[in-house]
Design goal:
- This protein is mostly helical and 303 residues long.
- The chain has one domain.
- The chain contains eight helices and eight strands.
- The chain has a two-stranded antiparallel ribbon.
- A hairpin with a 4-residue loop joins strand 3 and strand 4.
- Helix 2 crosses helix 4 and helix 5 runs antiparallel to helix 8.
- The longest helix has 24 residues.
- The structure holds FE2/S2 (inorganic) cluster.
């Protein structure tokens, strides 16, 4: 029985053609001598881009994803910047809740109970309370493989979407300064692991309230945030390589293979985890701010 293929024509209708036959070149696609491989090209020569006069041949709403990404990331960065430089409403004395945006609190402006790692930075307004960790967290996210794609597309429009050209004349990838620094991502991953441990410690300490053991909605929010932070951190592409890379035979490393399998399952959700953790970080910070400011009380289950 002869096989057939279903294809959609440029006019939106379906047509059937036998398998193995060459698809006709669309009549409405302009083609010039530039788009044809030149016989004299040497290996390593750059292929010229097809000379298509239309900006893009895509007819779907490809601009929605970069637009939403731009709006989401901008909103989060504005919120986080405002919060980091407020220098207040970061600690709930009664329940020992500390927002992750101020952890660890290391300036001499910090409330004493919130300074689990000492106070060794001056309290200038330009210095965030978590000045020791925020730069590493920022660089970890900035060099993340997913976020790179997100902001290259939505902020630099380079390119804004697949099959949509950007306006840059040349392409050097990530081989020159400053983008060559993206290759440091694996080192920021190690810093992120240390910071996730600190956030976990904060969440554990929050069960020890001013009146002994206690448990409320704030604890659930802090715990949920920490779990999501770990999921995002462990799903990192660098983590996957650190755990399962550079091995010749998985059969000789069964523990690493199992760990790599687990990380790989999380890794396919890395984009979702990147956004979920932005949400859990903002929710956790807002909840702690609201309690510290006295806007509403914590919902307590025990003590
Ligand atoms: Fe996204 Fe490493 S690739 S955190």
């Amino acid at each position: 029985m002869s096989k057939t293929l279903l294809r959609r024509t440029s006019h939106g209708r379906n047509s059937i053609r036998p398998a193995g036959t060459r698809a006709p070149f669309p009549k409405d696609m302009p083609m010039t001598s530039k788009s044809v491989t030149r016989p004299g090209r040497q290996p390593g020569d750059r292929a010229p881009r097809a000379a298509i006069s239309a900006k893009t041949l895509r007819t779907d709403r490809w601009w929605i994803a970069p637009l939403l990404t731009f709006a989401g990331l901008s909103a989060w960065v504005i919120y986080a910047t405002v919060r980091v430089f407020m220098h207040k409403w970061y600690w709930v004395e009664q329940y020992h809740y500390l927002t992750p945006f101020y952890s660890p609190c290391v300036t001499d402006r910090c409330v004493e109970g919130a300074s689990h790692f000492g106070q060794w930075l001056p309290s200038w307004w330009i210095i965030p309370e978590a000045a020791f960790t925020l730069p590493f967290l920022l660089l970890f996210r900035l060099t993340c493989y997913y976020y790179r794609k997100a902001y290259y597309r939505s902020f630099w429009l380079s390119p804004p979407a697949c099959a949509v050209p950007d306006n840059h004349s040349g392409y050097t990838g990530e081989t020159r300064f400053p983008l060559v620094g993206q290759n440091l991502h694996r080192y920021f991953f190690y810093a992120a692991v240390a910071i996730s441990l600190i956030n976990t410690w904060d969440a554990i300490l929050a069960f020890n309230t001013a009146d002994g053991f206690g448990f409320g909605l704030g604890n659930l929010i802090l715990l949920g945030n920490v779990v999501m932070l770990w999921a995002y951190t462990v799903s990192c592409h660098s983590c996957r390589h650190i755990i399962g890379g550079r091995l010749k035979h998985f059969s000789a490393h069964p523990v690493r293979y199992r760990a790599w399998t687990f990380v790989s399952k999380l890794n396919v959700r890395h984009m979702q985890l990147a956004w979920i953790t932005l949400a859990t970080l903002a929710i956790t910070d807002f909840y702690v701010m609201a309690l510290a400011a006295g806007w509403f009380p914590d919902l307590r289950f025990i003590n």
